[in-house]
């Protein structure tokens, strides 16, 4: 059987409106099939909403978000990691195993795969602990293992390292880089310019609800094309 990729993703004239105001859009953009895309921009620029819109979590006021396959299949092949991870009041292993069980794996199979992921992500010792008692970094690792366990084609992450210490951040970045090198497409927002430079193959610079500039990371960081991106990279306040 030929497995058709869900990518590239196309956004056509896509807009999200809240309280009568367009907060993101119009966006016309094609997300290429490969890469580690970092989404950056000033506070309130629309990064979170753009990611949610790509993932199909926002009702569109106009336009379309189109994958290469039917919506149901596209949905199954994506995962999303939130800034504040959502987790069940069960132990860590069960939290990670859950998506596999939900999609038809036996409990035994799901638990075995979850244990493998916990090992990989450095959470093996916490397997039997209730998820709600984890530290911030551990929670985010759990969320990442749970997102990756079904080997999504594309993973969206909204500020996954906000407020984590250096060690947790390093561990999470290593897992993301490894997932990417094994073929997972990644789209992630961050406020941390060091992290953006470490991880990005390409950049989406969001300003006032629009993709203001996009391109390969090396070019963006060395030669930003727009005055707003230049100002942002210099650390100026961009409104
Ligand atoms: N549910 C909502 N109702 C009204 N306005 C909203 C809603 N959600 C977001 N907004 C507004 O839309 C704009 C974009 O928000 P969004 O959270 O996408 O930006 P962001 O770039 O992720 O911000 P930050 O960097 O602060 O996390 C902001 O001005 C925000 O106040």
UniProtKB/TrEMBL annotation:
<dbReference type="GO" id="GO:0005886">
    <property type="term" value="C:plasma membrane"/>
</dbReference>
<keyword id="KW-1003">Cell membrane</keyword>
<dbReference type="InterPro" id="IPR050086">
    <property type="entry name" value="MetN_ABC_transporter-like"/>
</dbReference>
<dbReference type="GO" id="GO:0016887">
    <property type="term" value="F:ATP hydrolysis activity"/>
</dbReference>
<dbReference type="InterPro" id="IPR017871">
    <property type="entry name" value="ABC_transporter-like_CS"/>
</dbReference>
<dbReference type="InterPro" id="IPR003439">
    <property type="entry name" value="ABC_transporter-like_ATP-bd"/>
</dbReference>
<dbReference type="Pfam" id="PF00005">
    <property type="entry name" value="ABC_tran"/>
</dbReference>
<keyword id="KW-0067">ATP-binding</keyword>
<dbReference type="InterPro" id="IPR027417">
    <property type="entry name" value="P-loop_NTPase"/>
</dbReference>
<keyword id="KW-0547">Nucleotide-binding</keyword>
<protein>
    <submittedName>
        <fullName>Phosphate ABC transporter ATP-binding protein, PhoT family</fullName>
    </submittedName>
</protein>
<dbReference type="InterPro" id="IPR003593">
    <property type="entry name" value="AAA+_ATPase"/>
</dbReference>
<dbReference type="GO" id="GO:0005524">
    <property type="term" value="F:ATP binding"/>
</dbReference>
<comment type="similarity">
    <text>Belongs to the ABC transporter superfamily.</text>
</comment>
<keyword id="KW-0813">Transport</keyword>
<feature type="domain" description="ABC transporter">
    <location>
        <begin position="9"/>
        <end position="233"/>
    </location>
</feature>
<keyword id="KW-0472">Membrane</keyword>
